[in-house]
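Entry 14. Structure prediction run on the chain below.
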Amino acid sequence: MPTAAILVRLSRTPLPVLLLLTLLQRTPALRGLILGSPPLASTAAVQLLRAAFTAAGLGAVHSLAGATTFVQTPAANPVPGTVGTTLTVGFTYTGTPSIPQFFAVTGQLPPGLAFVPAPVNGTVRSASPVITGTPTQAGNFTVRVQGFGIAGNGNPVPINFAIAASGGGGTATRPVVAQQPVSQAVTVGSSVTLSAGITGTPTPSLQWRRNGIDLPGATSATLTLPSAQVSDAGDYSVVASNSAGSTTSSVATLIVIAANPAARLANLSVRTSLSAGQTLIVGVVVNDGPRDVLVRAAGPALAAFGLTSAMSDPRLDLFDGQGALVLSNDNWPASLAPTAASVGAFAFATGSADAAFVRTLASAHSIQARGSGAGVVLVEAYDTGAPTTARLVNVSARNRVGTGDDLLIAGFNVSGAGEKPLLIRAVGPKLAEFGVSGALADPVLEIFNSSGARVAENDNWSASLAPVFATVGAFALDSSSRDAALLANLPPGSYTAQVRGANNATGEALIEIYELK
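Output returned:
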């Protein structure tokens, strides 16, 4: 609202009283300088001058030597204000040999207004205090101010306030975040927009923050990063403020992935021990075109590595994304030997009961491995083609997790140049929602390199990874679940992901490896 000065002046007295005051030490007269409209300024000044002259004409003298008493009329025009609009009241002095050094304050200021400096035990210790702030409640309020100085004191002067409602509402309301910003995961160079829905009266001002630090110029309901960089990653929130207070939104985590198309997932292998009739399920997903994939189930071939409990006759079945059986293989054809050699797979003996096939895949498929009897089996899926845009983007395996050597172990290979960002998950509790009985209650995920060094691990996943799940199309995990998940930037090489149960617990678990492009 427009501001001007409403001059509240306690000024000169009639001559008879001046003669009396000459014998006494004069006390400062207090004048309130209030930001308001010019017409109100002149009216308030006239009324206060009349009050001063009336008091002086009556010869009223404070009981303290050198102090003159002034009487304020009760009908002074109030200081106008509006809920949600800043208001300031200042003070100047006339007719005084010395400026007051402190003030006694009583009464009630409108909520949202305050003395600066703040009163201590009802006393403002300053020669130039102000009343300032933004009213938050409509109504009429009165505060009394009495100045004190070396020369004595003046009687309390009432300052009346009339605060009008703002926008039809009588009371300011604290900001509320009706729509929280959402966490996201993007690759470098992508455009990112974070948004929040804020309500409040008066309309709140906004300030976006990253990792708790204000972002200059980020003061609208949406924050857009046209080309996100790794340095933009972090925890974002928005602070909404108005005269009724401030509210901070929930944190939205932005993950910026430094994608490297030159590096890729090349293969997956899962070794486990199956009981008679038990099935190992492996999933593969190919994106951006068709890809030739070699799938093998090694049983008898494991004897060459000293395994005496290998499955004697494994079988493979391939299913499409709708669950339809595509093909099966019991004993591998020797014609696949060159293909296996080209991807670095160890050789199968000619005529062995191991299983294998090659199939062109262009979407999601599942592979099931089982045998007529119990034993250890190794299931492998290899990308056999030259690097193109088509690639393996997700491999997974589900089986029962035991103890000791009977863990769920998945091997995978990163090929190409540079590091590859991967999302790796070990899912246990969530499987129960898909009808899997005996799910592992608390899986622990560990990643090892080819030297046997542990390069990453996780017990319970962080909710900050939720946007990454959405980016790669992985199903959501419950925010408080004990499933495990991690992000890893891995250079080219061979790795194993191991899933075990916390406190040696056992149960069904799913291990997943997703490429982040």
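Helices lie at 15-23, 38-57, 337-342, 466-472.
Filed with the rest of this week's runs.
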